[in-house]
Amino acid sequence: MSRMSSYVVLARKYRPRRFAEMVGQEHVVQALTNALTQGRLHHAYLFTGTRGIGKTTVSRILAKSLNCTGPDGTGGITAEPCGVCQACTEIDADRYIDYVEMDAASNGGKDEIRDLIERAAYKPGVGRFKVFMIDEAHQLSKDAFNALLKTLEEPPEYLKFVLATTDPDKVLPTVLSRCLQFNLRPMAPATVREHLARVLEAEQIPAETGALRLLSRAARGSMRDGLSLTDQAIAYGGGRLAEDVVRTMLGSVDRSHAAALVEALARRDAVAVLATVDALRAAGLSAEATLEELAQLLQQMAIEQAVPGALDDAEPETEVARALAPLLAPDETQLLYGMVVHGRAELALMSDEHGALTMVLLRFLAFPPAGSVPAPPPQAQRAAAPLRAPAPPALAVVPARVAVPRPETAVVAAVAVAAEPVAPPFEPAPPRVVEAAVPAFAAAAPSTALADRWQATVQALIESGTVAALVRELAWQAGLVAIDAATTPPTWRLAVAREPLRNPALADKLALALAAQLGEPVQLALQPGQPDDTPAQRDAADRAWRQAAAEALIEADPVVRELLGQFKTARLVPGSIRPV
């Protein structure tokens, strides 16, 4: 029982007691150290910043610096308090009579401030200075602020004020102008992670790197929160810090789920998006954690797109972000990031947060992929009408289905017609034939034996499920330019336009898949350049041919021609023709 009662939580046990022990606030430490060394002391200090980043801690160290007498009792004001004199030990133990901390959140009224001012009239009992620290100062009432102003502006020479707040905008400007202000910054995850590693090493508690990475992110810039979460994780994991245990405790989403969503969204694969969300629901992973992990992944992708190679190679998640970066155009990455960040606020608006997550993700699919031309709205067809022209009659949508020469292809279209026929009858022009509709797609680069072989090989790899994700993307975007049989094993030379896909790790995986498909080992050589013939280009040309064929056949359909002839305002609805 005595052992349990003597335990000190990590956040208190490892609270800095000297400026040199402060982590992540070097700009504040340097300014205060210089001021103390040169004797340029202000009468009031204001420390601002989010919770758990050291506002109270730096206040206590400042109080020790002002009152430290050194180990022999003869020291003066110093930037390096000794830690052993009466002032240092009693301030650390919260029992120094000349250092007063007041929480304005619960004691922010006028009466409490008047009591504090009355105590300020008396000189220090044992120390060199009286130091009054008011925490969460923005919660002082207006009357309390006004009562404090006079003393704050002209305090006795033995009195120092320290104010701390998480919301400086709520502090009266008249108070701000009387204080020397320091803004303590939220700490970077790397800074928190390094400090947690040192603490755990001192505690002789083993920790996996992935566990520390999760804890440092969950701290959200607060070292105190990071240490508190570490305490919780130690208890949760029975004294060990394993990545899977910490992930379960925090409810964090594995990067693989976020990567799967990015891949599916890049392919505009709504089926895969829904399947991944269902898997997240089944695994009990929260929608909010999913969006947070997605945002972090997209941020890294955007950095890689803007400055290739800028990501930290030591981070295990860098490889995933670099591999995914080429799947989205930079503007698409920014668009998706904005939707993900703002989508977090929408989760609380629905009882089913995974349903809300689905809507956030599907919103991205409503935007056309980069390079495509969205169909103009029907209103654009009437843009040239006179301003006072009567409204057009109601439209009826008449579906028409027509077969095209390919047996696996059908066509869906819609014809908008006026509610009333007009006279004289419209004489339709002769319909286009399919051959005349698609001459542009027949004029592509001539097929070669190498290109045909690569097309067949890649198609077989995809159908067998041997390649997936970025390895499949590499095969899809590459063009086979040569096969060097003189090497052992034979070397297949591929032209790849996108630099991120020319990744040795992806090439090795694709070579293994090819070896399994061909029954013999091969090696790949990736070279920069725009290939003339790739499976992706062939697929795009095929889809374009099918689209043109569908449009031509719809225009030639007798039912469509009859509708166009009967109704003057009848027209084919733009964008409604789709080969299916």
Estimated structural class:
alpha/beta
Report the strand count: 12
Q: Stretches where pLDDT falls below 50 for ≥5 residues? A: 371-443
| Helical proportion, percent range | 40-55%
Q: Could you say which overall geometry the principal axes of the C-alpha atoms support? A: elongated
Let me know the largest β-sheet.
Answer: 5 strands, parallel
Quaternary state reads: single chain
Radius of gyration: 35 Å
Distance between the termini: 73 Å
Count of DSSP-assigned helices: 24
Overview of this protein structure:
Helices cover 46% and strands 11% of the residues. It is of the alpha/beta class and 580 residues long. The strands form 3 sheets. The chain has a 5-stranded parallel β-sheet with strand order 2-3-4-1-5, covered by helices on one side.
Architecture blueprint of SSEs:
Layout: H1 2-5, H2 10-13, H3 26-38, E1 44-48, H4 55-67, H5 86-92, E2 99-103, H6 110-120, E3 130-135, H7 142-153, E4 159-165, H8 173-176, E5 180-183, H9 189-203, H10 209-218, H11 223-236, H12 243-250, H13 255-266, H14 270-282, H15 287-306, H16 318-324, H17 330-343, H18 353-365, E6 396-403, E7 410-417, H19 434-437, H20 449-464, H21 469-477, E8 479-484, E9 491-496, H22 504-518, E10 523-528, H23 535-556, H24 558-566, E11 571-572, E12 578-579
